[in-house]
Amino acid sequence: LGAVLKDSAEISLDSLKITEAKAIGTQFNDISAKARLYGGSLTADINSNDPKAKMNLSLLADLLETGRSNRYKINGKVENLDLFALGLDRRSPISRISLELDGDMLRKGYTIEGFLHLDNAGTENGSGQKKHGNMSLEAYIEQGEQWFKFGAPFADLFISGNGSIRDLIADIQNLTTRRELSAIYKDSTDFVGNGRYNLDLQLHDSR
User: Fold this and answer.
1) Is 106 helix (H, G, I), strand (E, B) or coil?
2) What are phi and psi of 104, to 5 degrees?
């Protein structure tokens, strides 16, 4: 696949119109897209008028592992994502989210730098609608350590450590699901701490 991506001069999809399709056990309607693959980078625009997943998204992703860096970008608006209709939340027949996205991340080896903004986020369930305001995630390197900063009206979270993002995820699994729910994993990896991390969580009034 890497050779195909690298050697391909350009692959373009000018227009794709899906009037009806079934995926993940759900019927989707009225979705259009266009995409371009050039030099191992994929750009795509997706427009969905399906009431269950009404959204407009623009995406960019570097697919090749060049040994240097890979950029990932997303921009768009999710007007309505019906989690119940999509089978993602069965707790209530009313479970919807909406938000605006703007993100630009650069991965260099096992480190990440960039941002992801989630603006005008809102949810709706059986208790009614709730606005959550703007949220953001920042990733950066400081004094040789990976830092993540999550900010929202209800909380601020800071995580720093000397391990990679892959190590962080693995350590969280080792401390939680691998320890308490080891049967869900095919391998039998013992708990081994791979990195050192600092966590600072500040909770705000969420009423």
Assistant:
1) strand
2) -150, 105
Q: If DSSP codes are grouped into helix, strand and coil, which group holds residue 127?
A: coil
Residue 90, SS3 per DSSP: coil
Taking residues 43-51, what's their average pLDDT?
A: 96
Q: What is the DSSP string of 78-141?
A: EEEEETTTTTS--S-S--EEEEEEEEEEEEETTEEEEEEEEEEEEEEETTEEEEEEEEEEEEEE
Helices vs. strands in the chain: H and E counts, helices first: 3, 11
Residue 141 CA to chain centroid, in angstroms? 20
Greatest Cα pair distance, the chain, in angstroms, is 55
Q: What is the pLDDT of residues 17-45, one digit of tens each?
A: 989 888 878 889 999 999 999 888 999 99
Tell whether the model's pLDDT for residue 91 goes beyond 70: yes
Residue 156: Cβ within 10 Å count: 14
Which DSSP helix (H) or strand (E) runs through 152?
strand 145-152
Read off the DSSP letter of residue 190. Answer: P
User: What does the alpha-carbon distance between residue 21 and residue 161 come to, in Å, rounded to a whole number?
Assistant: 44
d(CA 164, CA 93): 39
